[in-house]
Amino acid sequence: MRDPLLSIEDLVVEFRDPHRPGGVLRAVDGVSLTIAPGEILGLVGESGSGKTTLGKTILRLYEPREGRLRLKGLDITHLDEAGLRPHRRAMQMVFQDPLSSFNPRHTVGEALAVPLRLHRLCAPSDLAARVARSLEEVGLRPDFADRYPHQMSGGQLQRAAIGRALTLSPELIVADEAVSKLDVSVRAQILNLLRAVQARTGLAMVFITHDLHVARFLCHRIAVMHFGKLLEIGPTEDVFQHPQHDYTRALLGTLHAREARARTPS
Ligand SMILES: Nc1ncnc2c1ncn2[C@@H]1O[C@H](COP(=O)(O)OP(=O)(O)OP(=O)(O)O)[C@@H](O)[C@H]1O
């Protein structure tokens, strides 16, 4: 097996428990896993199981209470902002709601130019052409650069968000419910785009979803979370066809029941 791009060791993330004064809530409880270069890992589990917290901790947006995060072997668990800066480019996030992830006062072109400017990746005279190229890579016409977020559909805006994440040529994208707010037909287009982007660039992805259909379509491996713990992890078809855990069987049971209902003529 290739060296992991990211390895997570015994990770624990805690929050203050709003229901118990002085109490803590363990959102991620001793999770260990690795992500290989170029791999799409699906994080599934019901609401509150800790998927988003794990995704954000991977990007060091939350501080872990215990455990280690290694990016290409380098321990990044406790790097301060200055130490993290060179690695921030390598890891990007795509959120569920594209509208709230863009500043409404900036055009899409300006939004895509910001990371390029911040990381000094592009001469000012080349910015417009570079932004146009990024838009084309995600299937948007270059003139979309002049639009404001509210002038775009959800699917177009999610394409722009993916384009923005790609401007820094990341090695890992954490996509958190990135298609769940989109209409079914648009969802399929964005999933195809993500698959094409992964194949073209070779980046790895942590794809957080509660939709098992989507996970099965896109992901090479699936990790099942429950109450902050990692219940099982394996190649997608192994998990779907031979789930190891009752909880996974129950999750899949819900999916199969829904499929059966959809097939039954009303
Ligand atoms: N910033 C926070 N402050 C306090 N508690 C939090 C915070 N973020 C998450 N939690 C709590 O941590 C637990 C895990 O939440 P998390 O959002 O990671 O789960 P999830 O599996 O992503 O759920 P969903 O699918 O609903 O987004 C929940 O009990 C949640 O209420």
Automatic annotation (TrEMBL):
Gene Ontology BP, a term: transmembrane transport
GO molecular function: ATP binding; ATP hydrolysis activity
Protein name: Peptide/nickel transport system ATP-binding protein/oligopeptide transport system ATP-binding protein
Keyword match Iron-sulfur: no
Domain of life: Bacteria
Keyword Transport: yes
Ranges of residues in domain ABC transporter: 13-252
UniProt KW keywords: ATP-binding, Nucleotide-binding, Transport
Record PANTHER family: TRANSPORT ATP-BINDING PROTEIN
InterPro entries: AAA+_ATPase (IPR003593), ABC_transp_ATP-bind (IPR050319), ABC_transporter-like_ATP-bd (IPR003439), ABC_transporter-like_CS (IPR017871), P-loop_NTPase (IPR027417)
Organism of this sequence: Humitalea rosea
Pfam families (alphabetical): ABC_tran
